[in-house]
């Protein structure tokens, strides 16, 4: 299932969300790799101190049941098992003196560990 969506200015609760800043960063990373055939795959896996851990990586595979959304030319893929955990989540990119990297603001997370690397 592929859905064409403009980069959201408001958070949608029925899908994952990608900020404009994050979309720009993903495009930059893909340009540096010289690849235009990769999607940003976001999944939830067991692990971490709180039980679940996010994984973000570039992927060329398409799996049965994947939910694919396009954000301003950036393809984001979520596997069917991760969709319920990620609906309404906002993926952003932070670049400050204190932190650099992708962040996930997830309204489905009821708690997280002190390191901020996992949730439940």
Automatic annotation (TrEMBL):
One Pfam entry for this protein is Fe-S_biosyn
Can you tell me where the transmembrane regions are? Answer: none
Q: Which Gene3D superfamilies match?
A: HesB-like domain (2.60.300.12)
**Protein's UniProt name:** Iron-sulfur cluster insertion protein ErpA
Tell me what organism the protein belongs to.
Nocardioides oceani
Sequence ranges assigned to domain Core in this UniProt record: 15-117
């Amino acid at each position: 299932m592929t859905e064409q969506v403009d980069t959201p200015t408001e958070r949608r609760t029925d899908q994952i969300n990608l900020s404009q800043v994050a979309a720009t960063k993903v495009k930059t990373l893909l340009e540096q790799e010289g690849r235009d055939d990769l999607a940003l795959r976001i999944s939830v896996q067991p692990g971490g101190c709180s039980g679940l851990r996010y994984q973000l990586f570039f992927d060329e595979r398409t799996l049965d049941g994947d939910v694919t959304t396009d954000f301003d030319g950036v393809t984001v893929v979520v596997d069917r098992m991760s969709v319920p955990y990620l609906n309404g989540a906002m993926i952003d990119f932070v670049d400050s003196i204190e932190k650099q990297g992708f962040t996930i603001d997830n309204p489905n997370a009821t708690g997280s560990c002190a390191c901020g690397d996992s949730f439940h």
